[in-house]
Amino acid sequence: xxxxxxxxxxxxxxxxxxxxxxxxxxxxxxxxxxxxxxxxxxxxxxxxxxxxxxxxxxxxxxxxxxxxxxxxxxxxxxxxxxxxxxxxxxxxxxxxxxxxxxxxxxxxxxxxxxxxxxxxxxxxxxxxxxxxxxxxxxxxxxxxxxxxxxxxxxxxxxxxxxxxxxxxxxxxxxxxxxxxxxxxxxxxxxxxxxxxxxxxxxxxxxxxxxxxxxxxxxxxxxxxxxxxxxxxxxxxxxxxxxxxxxxxxxxxxxxxxxxx
Length: 260
Prior knowledge:
The chain is built from 16 helices and no strands. The chain is an all-alpha fold and 260 residues long. Helix 5 crosses helix 10 and helix 13 packs across helix 15. It is globular and about 50 Å long.
């Protein structure tokens, strides 16, 4: 059995081949064919969220599978769009919502929102990458976390984005030897602690990012060993259940339910 770092590097250094192999899997190929054949026919937000197969594919592509059920919430995300800093998606600390609303920009493009490259090919590329990471996680959750961090870290612009994403935070905590119990502390105190240990601009340099992930992999190996599929529930990249949804998302969901 390969170590965590060896497994991660095997996938990462051959990412094009790895993605192609994932794309060719029968279930992925079938779902992708359906998505590309039907997404262009969607003209409204209601049609989008109403087609479970299309909507769930898109949500998974942006790491939001656990929110597929929250149609009212996502309807608001899409309705307000991302044109200003005060829109719903842009006020959420989790940037996945603004990324989703940018890709499916019904607020700006109306019935042409699903005809863009981002909504079609861009979403497929993200879906395949998500599936690749899931497959890696079925063998070793540490590899999945490393691949996820590698994908997301270069786009991090402030430390709070790490705190808002449980998977990014777990990688950072493990790499730095920080107890997960610190997540119970005041968010600003957590931010100050991580800022003292991490220079997020380092993640934009491939060599420094790889060094950080090597450190994470070594620490993961120490804690977990060279593992096959985890016997405990996997840490879902689409918001880990044991760590919960971010506070602003939970609050909004509750308000939407109360208003129904």
